[in-house]
Design brief:
With 450 residues, this protein is of the alpha+beta class. The protein has ten helices and 23 strands.
Length: 450
């Protein structure tokens, strides 16, 4: 088993994750066909696999650059308060990413969400107080320490990388190679035999990622990897191939359809009497988790409700269509769970809503055109997140919200495009409180934005 090397404040490879669903024709997309139920590894869709990688042992880890963010490392033995005034610029949000015992690190985020030009990087690199400047990166990593679990994370390089000498490699060979490439050997790791940390001079033509690759490709080292500093994330569990998935940013996550349960969304002008008539219109169905919608107060506005079959058998598509045909119903869909989950608390559902965030290079007119082409309408811009909108999919559309969100994401016009999921892991509560949470659990918006 390979050992994952960690340093407090200077992580070699700690990675993290995020989540993504919709039915697709794999043959039409020209992708490798994987049989449903087969276990698959997550991938970052659209990853450019040219020179954008680093080595973890002999494995190539490919990455994307996030050019809207920079990580800066300052010189040692200086307090962050002495550096921050040098970085103040109206174009950036500046924060102290973290501060080790000796060295502060700073995160700069472009306020206009546009790519930060290389000239800005060179400007900061020229400061004598700054050791390294790097864009942030997003990449996937398969951790053998966590039984094959993948992680997706955002991190940045500094001037540092780590190498582990092969048994046949001498310290003198490492020192010679470092000198030839404008690097310094900063010391031996106190926990791992024959592991050394190196620093790349900021006058070098290569950065720490490129330098670590150069060292590894000499064949002198068991590993040679950049020391990344991590911005955050979560583990991405193993998953199985299914026809249903969504994108969390560019990471595809698969779902399983739960066909004995469905989620309905009602129009804003539907009253309690009309909604109850719809919910009670089919004797094979009952409110999910024992909810009694008839006990709700007269002034309580029910906008979404979940039904399930009494016998646990699948709900026929004809029943789905019959509910969808009601004028008071906006959308009807089955519920879903992560592809490998068997837990009821992992249930989730979607309505007609998808959440999109425009890339800095995408115009509102492009969003309008795409929405019109796909029988969608656009809600108001999110009051807290610039360039984020709720998009509503018509129930007459040939695609549901899951499929439409994937179509939008695959245009490469959006930072993310996701169904506005409703979470169901809350049914231990009483029926009224459950429905309140369910009605409010869409990720970003209330119904009033439509």
């Amino acid at each position: 088993m390979k050992t994952l090397v960690l340093k407090f404040g200077m992580f070699l490879l700690i990675l993290s994750g995020l989540f993504s669903c919709g039915e697709q024709n794999f043959e039409e997309r020209g992708e490798e066909i994987i049989l449903p139920g087969e276990e698959v590894n997550p991938v970052i869709e659209g990853l450019e696999k040219e020179d954008n990688f680093f080595y973890y042992f002999d494995e190539k880890i490919f990455f994307q650059q996030n050019r809207e963010k920079l990580l800066l490392k300052s010189v040692p033995d200086i307090h962050w308060s002495q550096i921050r005034p040098l970085l103040e610029d109206s174009a950036f949000f500046v924060s102290v990413a973290f501060w080790t015992e000796r060295t502060p690190y700073f995160l700069l985020i472009a306020n206009d969400e546009k790519p930060i030009p290389l000239a800005t990087i060179e400007f900061y690199k020229a400061m004598p107080e700054i050791v390294s400047v790097s864009y942030m990166y997003r990449y996937l990593f398969n951790s053998e320490l966590y039984e094959g679990t993948y992680f997706v994370t955002e991190g940045a390089r500094t001037d540092e990388f780590a190498v582990k000498l092969k048994n046949t490699t001498t310290l003198e060979q490492l020192q010679t190679l470092a000198k030839q490439n404008d690097c310094t050997v900063s010391g031996k790791d106190q926990f791992v035999e024959n592991q050394y940390n190196l620093h790349v001079s900021k006058t070098s033509e290569l950065n720490a990622i490129q330098m670590s690759k150069l060292f590894y490709e000499t064949g002198l080292f068991d590993f040679s990897s950049p020391l990344f500093h991590i911005n955050g994330g979560l583990p991405l569990p193993p998953q199985k191939q299914t026809p249903f998935y969504y994108y969390f940013y560019d990471v595809k996550l698969y779902l399983q359809q739960v066909t004995d349960k469905m989620l309905l969304k009602f129009t804003q002008d539907a009253n309690k009497e009309q909604i109850l008539a719809i919910l009670n219109s089919n004797s094979s169905l009952q409110p999910m988790a024992g909810a009694n919608y008839e006990e709700f107060p007269e002034n309580y506005v029910l906008r979404v409700a979940a039904l399930e079959t009494k016998d646990g058998k699948p709900i026929p598509s004809t029943i789905i269509e019959s509910f969808k045909a009601r004028a008071e119903v906006i959308s009807v869909s089955y519920l879903y769970k992560p592809s490998n989950s068997q837990r009821e608390q992992d249930l989730t559902g979607f309505t007609d809503e998808i959440t999109v965030k425009l890339k800095a290079t995408t115009t509102y007119e492009q969003l309008q055109e795409l929405a019109a082409q796909n029988n969608c309408t656009i809600g108001a811009e999110n009051q807290y997140t610039k360039n984020q909108y709720m998009v509503y999919v018509s129930k007459t559309s040939r695609l549901d919200a899951l499929q439409t969100s994937n179509l939008f994401q695959e245009t490469r016009l959006f930072q993310y495009s996701e169904p506005n999921f409703y979470m169901f892991g809350i049914f231990q509560l009483n029926a009224l409180e459950t429905s309140r949470i369910l009605s409010a659990s869409g990720r970003q918006y209330s119904e009033t934005t439509k």
